[in-house]
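pinned: reference chain
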Amino acid sequence: FRGYLQEQPDGGILIAEPEAGRVLQVDSQGHPVWEYINRFDDDRVLEMTGARAFPAAYFTVADWSCP
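pinned: its structure tokens
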């Protein structure tokens, strides 16, 4: 079995299914919040080797200047 899961602070879970080419997030009750399918064409998917969720503040840059 290959795959990845990441527990979220709100009790949800981020799940990656490599062979299905899918990443989905479920809430604390197990209901889907969103999903992404990495499609190659109408009949095939590309492998999704992993996924991670980051807090919004992770992408905040205070200073874009070069040293």
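why pinned: The longest strand covers residues 32-37. The chain has a mean pLDDT of 91.
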